[in-house]
Structures are given as C-alpha cells and as structure tokens.
Write a structure and sequence with these properties.
Rossmann fold; disordered N terminus; binds S-adenosylmethionine; 12 strands; alpha/beta; seven-stranded mixed beta sheet; 12 helices
C-alpha cells in the first residue's frame, strides 16, 4: 500500500497526519506486483456509491462533483491553493484514456497521483476539467518545445510547478542543454522532493508573489533566455500579486523573457463558481478579458499568441465558449496566453 512514513509510524492513505518536519517525510513507492494498489479511478467512472455525485452548474454545463466528506486529512498534507495541484495531475494521469488520439502521455503522473493519497472530493475528476488540464498541458508543452528549439541553452522555469513532470515528459523532445527550474510553496516543494527524488528540475521553495522570490535562482538564469510557465497559477493571484509577478519576471529575467500561462475571463474568475473553490477552498482572485489585457497588467509585456483550450474539450464546451464570446463581444472564457517582455521605453 502506498504510505507516507513519518518518523517511526506508517500512515495509510486517508488517515490524518499530525506531525511533519522537513526531513522525515518519506513516501513508499508502490511495487508492480498483483497485491499492489489499484490504479486511480478513471475520470467519469468514480464509484458513485462510495462518492455520491452532486451537480454543480458552471458555464451553463453541469459538472458532477463527489459529495463525500471526511474528517481524515489525506496523506499529501496539502490544503487550499497548494491542493489545487491534484486536479491537473489527475487529468495527466488519465490522459491515455481521455485523449487516446493525441501523442500526450505522462506515465509518471499516475504513480504520483496514487502516492498523494488524494480523495475525490478535493480533486475535480469530471471529464471537462480532466480533459481541459491535458489540453492546457499540450499547449504549454508545444510552447516549451518551440522555445527549446530556438534557445537550446535557455531556462524553463515553472512557477507553481506542483507535481508537473514536463521536464521528464519532454526529455526526448528538448535538448539536454536546457535548464529546468521550478518554484512553488514550501509544502509543495517538500512533497515533490519526497515523491520525485530523481527530479531533473532544480526546485525553489518560495511564494512568487513575495519580494525576493527570484533571488536564489538568478544565478541559473543570468544572461540566458528564460521561459516562465505559469500553469494553473495566475488566477489565484490578487490583481496586485499578478502585477508584481509579471513585473518581477521582467526585472529578474530581462527583456526577451517569455511567459506562458492560462487565465480566465474576469466574469468567470471572480464569480466564485468554479468547482475548484468548493473542492479545495482556493479562490480565483484575478482574470483578464483577453491576452492583450493580461499583458497590459504590468508594463513591458506584450502578447505573442493566444491558444484556445476550452474549445478543445468537447463540442458542448466549444458551443458554450462561442456563446460566451458573443455575450462578451469577442472574449474567450479561458485560454493560454504567450507573452514576451520588451525593453521599457
Ligand atoms: C493548479 S496547481 C498547478 C500545478 C502545476 N502547474 C500543474 O499544472 O500541474 C497551482 C499551483 O500553484 C502553486 N501556487 C499558488 N500560489 C503560489 C505562489 N504564490 N507561489 C508559488 N506557487 C504558488 C500551488 O501551490 C500549486 O502547486
């Protein structure tokens, strides 16, 4: 059974952890024998007897959210915004089933997901969110691969990296000279180090909305082209935090720095109706009407390209996005934006 060992005691999945220090977190990796834990549930086929589903209406579409609640804390020990990493991890872990027609595969994600000991109520397991996470990852993988081809000595920094394994996933498609960095909140970095001891990513425990967050990593980035990936991150920042983050990336990595990240339109971001709010308690705090507006949040940034995501999930999502564009006179509900920093004039 997958278990996190703390100090002298083993804590089975689903049981409360009471004490945790930086040094005593160890995760036992499941072996591949027949007695091993079953794979995580496939999206859309969560056992509705164990986890009754309740409908939540979002963007005119029903999403079915497991309604189970439990007093036990899961083994990953995350809460609030850090627990949001479980939802995209769930999507990537199920990508083979969800999108068999694409080349996207993330074999490490399924193992990582199982090791977190996640509980369905804290993860959005519906098909829309799972497929959307994978389409977002596909868009950002393509941006990363193109950057690596242009800048083989460059640096890819994933801000709010969570348990994403882009470096491992794109190993065959990017030059070995590329440097991979990741930043996230301390509790996430601690979990990631425990679950991924062979990580090719150099990690930094920091909040990227706090002054000085990049001080420790500029030795790795100086005079090199940098691509910042902000995947599932920007919407959690207050408007001031979003501005600070964009400002600090341009200050730290200079003109020419690139940033790719997903954003919601403010009507959705600020509605408090996204199911992740209910699942984790984390709230969206900012949005942008389009990629140009996102770039204009801080001086010196401009939009290079915008990539639709919601439209790719299903015909129903494409229709809902189309209606949204009609109502807002052209804005997308959700997209990935690719920005570039210029010199300040
Ligand atoms: C939705 S998850 C996405 C994780 C990962 N990028 C992925 O796509 O799998 C959001 C991540 O952003 C991190 N995060 C949120 N606010 C942050 C901050 N101020 N500084 C650093 N990381 C932050 C969370 O801890 C979490 O890992």
């Amino acid at each position: 059974m997958t278990a996190v060992t703390e100090g002298r005691g083993e804590v089975p999945i689903g049981h409360r952890r009471t004490h945790r220090t930086q040094h005593d977190l160890r995760v036992d990796v499941p072996h591949s024998g027949p007695e091993q834990p079953t794979a995580p549930e496939r999206p859309g086929i969560i056992d509705s007897h164990k986890h009754p589903l309740t409908p939540v209406w979002y963007l005119g579409l029903p999403k079915f959210i497991p309604a189970e609640s439990s007093d036990d804390a899961p083994v990953h020990g995350l809460s609030g915004v850090s627990a949001t990493l479980l939802t995209p991890l769930y999507g990537r872990a199920h990508a083979t089933d969800l999108l068999p027609g694409t080349a996207f595969r993330d074999p490490i994600a399924a193992r990582l997901l199982a090791q977190t000991g996640y509980r369905p109520p804290e993860v959005l397991t519906d098909r829309g969110n799972a497929v959307g996470s994978v389409h977002r990852a596909i868009a950002l993988d393509a941006i990363t691969t193109a950057f690596a081809a242009r800048c083989p000595q460059g640096v890819v920094l994933s801000a709010g990296i969570g348990l994403d394994t882009r470096a491992q996933r794109l190993r065959e498609h990017t030059p070995a000279s590329l440097t991979w960095l990741g930043a996230d909140l301390p509790e996430v970095i601690q979990l990631r180090r425990a679950l991924l001891p062979e990580d090719p990513v150099t990690l930094f425990a920091a909040s990227v909305t706090e002054p000085g967050w990049y001080d420790a990593l500029t030795t790795e980035t100086s005079d090199r082209p940098v691509l910042v990936i902000a995947e599932g991150l920007l919407m959690y920042f207050e408007p001031d935090g979003l501005r600070f983050f964009l400002d600090s990336c341009r200050t730290a990595f200079g003109p020419g720095a690139e940033l790719a990240g997903d954003y919601f339109h403010p009507r959705l971001a600020l509605s408090d109706r996204h199911p992740i709010v209910r699942a984790t308690g984390a709230r969206f705090r900012s949005g942008a009407a389009n990629g140009h507006r996102l770039a204009a949040t801080a001086p010196g940034w401009h939009l290079v390209a915008e990539h639709p995501v919601m439209e790719r999930i299903s015909p129903l999502h494409r229709a809902a996005a189309g209606i949204f564009r009609l109502i807002t006179l052209g804005s997308r509900p959700y997209a990935v934006a690719h920005l570039k920093a210029g010199a300040l004039v």
